[in-house]
Amino acid sequence: MTSQSDNFTGKLIPVYLSLICSLQRVSKHRCLVRLNHSPTTYDTINPLHSDLSGKVILVTGASRGIGRAISIAYAQAGASGLALLARNRAGLIETRTACMKAQRHGSDKNFQVLLLEVGITSTEAVASALKEVETKFKRLDIVVNNAGQFQGHQNNIGDMDPGSWWNIWTVNVNGLFNVTRAALPLLLDGLRIIVNMTSITAHLITGGFSDYETSKLAILRLSQFIAAEYGDQGVLCYAIHPGTILTDMPAQIPKNGGRNSTLTWRIP
Ligand SMILES: NC(=O)c1ccc[n+]([C@@H]2O[C@H](COP(=O)([O-])OP(=O)(O)OC[C@H]3O[C@@H](n4cnc5c(N)ncnc54)[C@H](OP(=O)(O)O)[C@@H]3O)[C@@H](O)[C@H]2O)c1
């Protein structure tokens, strides 16, 4: 029998370690800004030290970037099942191949990967994707709400295209809501961990990025709501800022010219 704090630690550590590990792998060669962190994964947080055998993890935005790295880390951590969700099939297949190579189980039958070619803005498509997860794995332990969008434009609110502005919220906030809502029934019978990818920009005001930065702030509050509403059922919800990592996302920021091109953040 384990105490409440043992349960807490047992749940927290594998996820945290796998995530941090995976993020550091992405940033190893491609760091956008100078950060005070180790360029390589260090032993304490190596996913090989975790044992997630028997566990099933859903990662959204798994077709590239941080989501791919997280998926690989979970494969290394010994997860038995991965549900990889994104819209781009070719990207998902690449991630699956990388996970199969990285997975620690000796044979494929102990490790299964389900590809979910789905856009998270569709409530129906997300619900049916979660049904697929249930049919294939019969369980779900961890949901990583990593999928997100950002636009490299730098317009003040008055110059923003309304559709583009709202699209960022539709993906980042409503998409995360859709996935969480559909996953909760299955998740409540598993390890009950939700990891939401936010950003340091949730705390910043960078002129021109009101769509993205407000959406990431909303994710912080949504994470608190998940914890408040489901904490007594054992759900642990974390909002994680991954650091600045040169994936396709920040690569959209113009290198030269543009008032935000050097990521100079202004806090009033
Ligand atoms: N990179 C950074 O420096 C940084 C910093 C802070 C926070 N973050 C956050 O970290 C997360 C991952 O970022 P990243 O850098 O890896 O970005 P990325 O390389 O642009 O990847 C974004 C992922 O989200 C998926 N996605 C986008 N729209 C989607 C939709 N409507 N439905 C389903 N999937 C969708 C994309 O897949 P498809 O296009 O195939 O659908 C892709 O797999 C994001 O939430 C981002 O805001 C990143």
UniProtKB/TrEMBL annotation:
Gene3D superfamilies named in the record: NAD(P)-binding Rossmann-like Domain (3.40.50.720)
The keyword Ubl conjugation appears for this protein: no
Oxidoreductase among keywords: yes
GO molecular function annotation: oxidoreductase activity, acting on the CH-OH group of donors, NAD or NADP as acceptor
Key words, A-Z: Oxidoreductase
Matching InterPro entries: NAD(P)-bd_dom_sf, SDR_fam
Matching SUPFAM superfamilies: NAD(P)-binding Rossmann-fold domains
Entry's family note: Belongs to the short-chain dehydrogenases/reductases (SDR) family.
Protein name as it appears in the record: Uncharacterized protein
Biological source species: Collybiopsis confluens
